[in-house]
Design brief:
This protein has helices spanning about 20-25, 100-105, 355, 360-370, 375-380, 385-400, 410-435, and strands at about 5-10, 10-15, 45, 55, 75-80, 85, 90, 115-120, 125-130, 135-140, 145-150, 155-160, 165, 170-185, 190-205, 210-215, 225-230, 235-240, 245, 250-255, 265-270, 285-290, 295-305, 310-315, 325, 340-345. The chain has about 450 residues and is of the alpha+beta class.
Length: about 450
């Protein structure tokens, strides 16, 4: 979008759109206070002690309602009166008036912004976020959306810049690899190489996600490892050369340097939807580092998993600037995906055995049981569903994902249910959606 003028004074950002002088003044928004909105009919500009202008709203009609899901994004927070939230550094869309969250996302391209905030109203408000540092407790009820990459179902891969495709191959792949030099908080206060790797194993003719392996090699050697498979949906952790242990509850997994952790995996849990039979386990992992400014979560992973079935995963980067450090299936600017809706991801396929990467022998044995011998790309492409089967799949997905109807998330659910995933796959999709929306 086109912004004609951006003026900054101290911590305030004002945006002026091409209007008359009167309406241009009415469009001034102090963004350090963030989402303070204005009625275009009746608003006053009140001077502060330092000479800045603060928008004061006399009256505003806002409609508080459950926000729609947006393809390629997850709802980070927001809601009813007094509980809306936004980001601390943003730019308001003024050249157009996005009618809904999908239109707001289009005005805030994921190649430039890691997310956006949107509020239904008269008129609606849309802000493009330069980071996803949250500001909560806002009224009107804004919702904060962040770009999320991940693998759901068959699997359907979404990159961190919103490209979407279906993988046509089973095996182990590099899903997400973050590597960059960061200012860590240690006794020497030196820079260190942060190196996190997430491997995914896809199995069977539909190649559903069966396992995840999280490796922390920051500093040049394996510090800590997390592993989970759909055999039992239990996290197993290993620190350095120690033995594997099961992690059932929230815990920060790290090998300390001195008195503090340097990098680690921070596990936590949010509730699954009632009635779906969700498996209770830590379904969130934050990739955390101890910086000179304190603890920093670089990325967050959300999961849904059902024992003896499969799992879904999404990864959300907290800052747009960190995406340049990401490689793997979720990396941005994958030119080969510009016109493709299906891929074999040969460049991210891993030849090393699971145990050679750092995984357990138990997981490797499980994959041998669920992998399909002789599965080819052609066998993936020949699968189809009849109109009657698709209609039943749509009914099943509508039952669990009503609010996501019309998005690729819903279409993926229909595809998976229709191609052998059954109602369990719709339940897993709903559980993942609930985890990513949890405040």
């Amino acid at each position: 979008f086109n912004i004609n003028s951006i003026q900054r004074t101290r911590d305030f950002t004002y945006l002026v759109s091409p209007m008359s002088a009167m309406s241009a003044m009415a469009a001034i928004v102090p963004l350090s206070l963030f989402l303070v909105s204005v009625n275009p009919v009746a608003a006053e500009l009140e001077p502060l002690e330092d000479g800045c202008l603060l928008q004061s709203t006399k009256e505003r009609q806002l409609v508080a309602e459950e926000q729609q899901p947006v393809p390629g994004y997850t709802i980070l927070c927001g809601g009813g009166s007094g509980s809306g939230c936004g980001c601390t550094d943003s730019v308001q869309v003024t050249s157009t008036t996005p009618a809904d969250a999908v239109a707001c996302a289009a005005a805030c391209p994921s190649t430039q912004y890691p997310g956006f905030a949107f509020a239904v109203g008269m008129p609606p408000l849309c802000f493009c976020c330069n980071n996803l540092v949250q500001r909560s407790g806002l009224d009107p009820p804004f919702y904060l959306y962040g770009v999320a990459g991940g693998a759901e179902g068959d699997p359907h891969i979404t990159t961190l810049d919103g490209r979407h495709y279906t993988l046509l191959r089973q095996g182990t792949f590099s899903l997400w690899h973050f590597r960059g030099e960061m200012d860590l908080h240690d006794e020497l206060a030196t820079k260190a190489q942060v190196d996190w790797h997430v491997y995914a194993h896809y199995s069977g003719q539909q190649s559903f996600t069966k396992g995840l392996l999280l490796i922390d090699k920051s500093g040049g050697s394996i510090r800590q490892v997390l592993e989970i498979t759909s055999q039992d949906c239990k996290w197993k952790a290993r620190k350095g050369n120690e033995d594997w242990k099961v992690v059932d509850n929230a815990e920060l997994i790290f090998v300390p340097d001195g008195k503090d952790f340097v990098t680690g995996f921070d596990l936590s849990a949010v509730s699954s939807p009632r009635g779906h039979g969700g498996h209770a386990f830590p379904n969130r992992v934050h990739f955390s580092m101890n910086t000179k400014n304190g603890k920093l979560d670089v990325a967050g992973m959300s999961l849904s998993c059902r024992p003896s079935h499969n799992m879904n995963v999404q990864i959300l980067m907290k800052r747009q600037s960190d995406k340049k450090f990401v490689d793997g299936e979720l990396k941005v600017s994958r030119k080969s995906l510009s016109t493709l809706q299906m891929s074999t991801d040969s460049e991210f396929s891993v030849d090393s055995k699971w145990q050679e990467l750092g995984g357990s022998g138990q997981a490797a044995s499980y994959f041998q049981l669920v992998d399909t011998n002789g599965t080819s790309v052609a066998s993936f492409q020949l699968q189809s569903c009849s109109d009657a089967q698709k209609g039943l799949a749509e009914e099943t997905c509508s039952k669990h994902l009503g609010e996501a109807h019309g998005t690729y998330f819903f279409e993926d659910c229909v595809f998976d249910v229709c191609h052998g995933g059954g109602e369990t796959q719709a339940e897993l999709a709903a559980e993942l959606l609930a985890v990513t929306k949890a405040d």
